[in-house]
Amino acid sequence: MTATSAGPTGARLLRGIAGPADVRALPADALPALATEIRAFLVDRVARTGGHLGPNLGAVEITIAAHRVFDSAADALVFDTGHQTYVHKILTGRRAGFDTLRRDGGLSGYPSRAESPHDVVENSHAATALSYADGLAKAFALRGETGRRVVAVVGDGALTGGLSWEALNSIGAAPERPVVVLLNDNGRSYAPTVGGAARHLAGLRAAAPGAPPAGGNLFEDLGLAYIGPVDGHDIAAVEDALRAADRLGRAVVVHCVTRKGRGYPPAERDTTDHMHAVGPLDPATGRPVGGGGATWTTVFAEEIAAIGAARDDVVCLTAAMREPAGLGPFAERFPDRVFDVGIAEQHAVTSAAGMAFGGLHPVVAVYATFLTRALDQVLMDVALHRLPVTFVLDRAGITGPDGPSHHGVWDAALLPVVPGLRLAAPRDCGRLRELLREAVSCVDGPTALRYPKAAVGPDIPALRRVGRCDVLREDPDARVLLVSVGPLAGACLAAADELAADGVPVTVVDPRWIAPLDPGLLGLARAHRLVLAVEDGSGTGALGARLAQELAGEGGRACAATLALPPRFLPHGSRSRLLAAHGLDADGIAGAVLHRLARLHRG
Predict the structure, then answer these.
(1) 345 is catalytic
(2) Active site (annotated) includes residue 89
(3) What tens digit of pLDDT does each residue of 397-435 get?
(4) Which of 9, 156, 232, 307 stands the most exposed, by the fewest C-beta atoms within 10 Å?
(5) Phi, psi for residue 94 in degrees, rounded to 5
(6) Nearest alpha carbon to residue 185 among 84, 258, 114
(7) 3-class SS at 338?
(8) Can 260 be counted among the known catalytic residues?
(9) pLDDT tens digits for range 457-495
(10) Which of 122, 303, 323, 345 is catalytic?
């Protein structure tokens, strides 16, 4: 049976799974067929909705085995990272929800405590599960809940993160406290797993069964027991290993070797990790359906490669996201100037600081949500030394279907507090290229550039430049100044058209650099009665809030405010819908201006 032949009409066993108890009740000889049905279901559903395909195809058998040995209603099953939990969701009664996977109001693509009591944490940032497990085991022991087991299902890529080793150091210090680390080793995180941890796992995989590896066993050296390596696609073998680990009653690593994309030929053949996370695709071929055109990421990819050709001091770093962050073309041309440090953002930032000390200009390309993991390093290791490091933040603002952990809504509020850091938000392709070159030309401190996960529209011309700001629309009679941040410029211009039709003239300015406050922007703000900054980050600490504070301190007549996202965790959903839901479309912006003008008039 092929992975696609057991679609919805052929899923005989799967239709009988309403929860983990049904998995435990199946005879062992039925389990391979269940695994085949699950893979067919995953390919069928994810082909329609998009989502994380490769990681989940590789985790089918280990998840079935985990649910047969442990009881996720009472025991704590923690997954690292959360993108390998689709099979867990299927086995815990959420199969019907896959028709709405990652869609507005639908099933989350990550663990979700609101969805199910079987989801202990909502982790989708890697290298966290072992720390959660350590804390849970301590809590269960202190509360006398000795019958509850703690299992951390950890991808090998998570072991490239320093937090994992901090947790293993703690777990190994008290090996009598039972924590089962189910290590899902497929040799990849997003891309191939890098570094010494990857080499050590390769050595463990290569050792003869029952024989110690030539280089020793780091897990045992840290104080944990070790079982493996185990064929992670042999359910019976994984079950036996997990039961043996449970009987030990202590901290133990069960090392399972799996293959990412297992059972679906297009994913098994994938060497570029395009099958890691996919949009809608043709399940027969694995080719994308729709899409195409330039994105912010592809524009960055072209421009950083061109900069690299002109400047041999420019180097690039990333945290296991070379291709998704747009460094593929740079790496092809300058392979010795790209450094993938694994899922280790803190290390990436401080390593970049070291490179800057050594006379290079590092460009750290990560998702906006992941840079917040390394704020201390940005602050104390880079900015304190006024080092020329550029941070390129992809997926800034609302990212869409990945949900609250992946929306890049905090960086624009947090980075402006870093002394000496300059933060840019391009409105279009031309400004992305322009601002990136300005950023890498800075020699006296860090810079950052943020842009969304989206297609790029046409360039928006400026009428004139004031300071570092571009004036996009100007009316000498305007009492209202719209400060459009980044790609919201188009919506601001459309709102200005609506307001002009209502007899409200508006000036629109793009600050380009949103931190620190530019004197040119302050001058424009002083010349207007109402200043409204429109931005796709958290309203707390946003540009509008900083403008309002500055203008209030001057005691002038200009009133400044921000129209931004609320300071809370937002659900998954389409970028356009979520922006509109929070007033960040043309109608919402125009309405906000009229509302605030009415308040000023009443005041």
Answers:
(1) yes
(2) no
(3) 998 888 788 888 999 999 999 999 999 999 999 999 999
(4) 9
(5) -115, 20
(6) 258
(7) strand
(8) yes
(9) 999 999 999 999 999 999 999 999 999 999 999 999 999
(10) 345
